[in-house]
Amino acid sequence: MTDLANAPAKDRADASRPEVTHSAQFTPRVDIVESDEELTLYADLPGVPADGFDLRYEQGQLLLHGRVRPRLAGKRLLLHEYDEGDFYRAFTIHESIDSTRIAAECKNGVLTVHLPKAEAVKPRQINVKAGA
Fold this sequence. Notes:
mainly beta; Immunoglobulin-like; four-stranded mixed sheet
C-alpha cells in the first residue's frame, strides 16, 4: 500500500473537495458584485441553454450546475479548440441574503443571478434634525 503522506501532490486526492465522478465538468468563470441592495453573480456559461440550468440555494450554499448538449454529433470535426461539458460551481452565501427573492436570467451565454440583501442588513440613511 502506498504511503500518501510521502507521495507527490499529484498522486494524492484532495480530501477537502468531493471527487468528480463524470468526465466533462468545467468550472465557469464568475464575477460577483456587491451593491447596497444585492449581490449580483455573473457566470460565463457558453453552450448552456436557458433550460439547461440547475440553480439551487440549499443550506447557505448557492449551487450552479449547467448542462451542455453536444453540438457536434454527426459532424466532421476539422479543428477542435472548444471543449464541451457540464459546468459546476458552489458558493457559500452569507445569511444576510433574502433567499426567497433570488432571481436569475441568462442572455448570450451569461447567467446573471440576483441575490437581494435582507432588509435588516441594508444600509440606511439616518436623518439628523436640528435641535431647538
